[in-house]
Amino acid sequence: MNSHPDFHQALDDGRLLCTLCPRACKLADQQRGLCFVRQRRGNAVELTTYGRSSGFVIDPIEKKPLNHFYPGSSVLSFGTAGCNLSCKFCQNWDMSKSREMDILQSPASPEAIAKAAADHGCLSVAFTYNDPVIFYEYAVDTAQACHQLGIQTVAVTAGYITEAARPGFFEHMDAANVDLKGFSETFYHDLCGGALNPVLETLKYLVHETQVWIEITTLLIPGENDSDDELDRMTTWIVEQLGQTIPVHFSAFHPDYKLLDRPATPHPTLVRAKEIAGRNGLKFIYLGNVHDPENASTYCPQCQSKIIGRSGYTLNEWQLSEPGECKTCGHTISGRFAREPSNWGNRYERIRI
Asked: Which of 136, 145, 293, 346 lies in disulfide reach of 110, CB 3.0 to 4.6 Å?
């Protein structure tokens, strides 16, 4: 493992305060934080799952979801175990809420992961399934190994990280999809066991102080975070604080984990969210977890022509003349684009490292 900052400080009562995320766990010797994977050992707080993964998959970059980051390309995706939030609706709860280390496969070094991505022709590696913030050291070391081989890096994260830890983590990321779970402190407190403000601060930091490509996802849960008022306030904040060209994905909820008493998100709810976001000025709005080619495709905000057509995760139209330029009117589209689209499509391939 490379040298990394010590994200802890000593307290007067002998415990150590973990300073990696806003939970600020106070740990006695051998005690684990809420994330379960960071443990106090003596005078240090250590990552207990370094080098171990819950599995490796090659899948489409659009599944992260990232629609403006080398569309159509393949990404090597992996996670570990544990999480620093307690979302009652978690859709990867078997990994993020795992307390059993036996879900983790044989060790895979950062260098081995980077080589596997290169050998399989992946443009990027994504840290996903559970939040990479809590496996900071493993994610950063892997990102550095990837960059040595020309592989891009992607963080799929809730953005629940402290101001002190943000720079060291995100300086190694080329793109991030940040999960903005709702737009009220009540929602974050009651359903996620966390707080909204640190996530908003992370988003502002990423947009204004880094070169990381950013997209935002919100899972719309009926009766919880899908009111017109909340969607209006959230999308207004995004436009005012982050800009009009941040791609936003509204995804459909399905009952899972501890939130089985809510219905699945009706398709009209997603459409309504897109309409509200559009009225507030957002230029790129997508609907996810549903089959809706029209609302998964990318349109030029200037001439309204379809520039990237999608059916599921497969690209079926590409109207960019230069990287990121609309072929019809020449308008520059925000994002990171290759001259020609990749064509990984809907494939999902498990690999061993």
From this structure: 145
Domain limits of the chain?
A: 8-47, 56-295+340-348
Q: Which residues contact 323 (CB under 8 A, 6 or more apart)?
A: 337, 338, 339
- Classified as helix, coil or strand, 236 is helix
Regarding pTM above 0.85, the answer is yes
Instruction: From the options 3.40.50.720, 3.20.20.70, 3.40.190.100, 3.50.50.60, give the CATH code of 56-295+340-348.
Output: 3.20.20.70
Per-residue pLDDT of the chain (353 residues; tens, 9 = 90+): 578 999 999 999 999 999 999 999 999 999 999 999 999 999 999 999 999 988 899 999 999 999 999 999 999 999 998 899 988 887 765 554 555 455 566 689 999 999 999 999 999 999 998 999 999 999 999 999 999 999 999 999 999 999 999 999 999 999 999 999 999 999 999 999 999 999 999 999 999 999 999 999 999 999 999 999 999 999 999 999 999 999 999 999 988 767 788 899 999 999 999 999 999 999 999 999 999 999 999 999 999 999 999 999 999 999 999 889 999 999 999 999 998 888 899 999 999 98
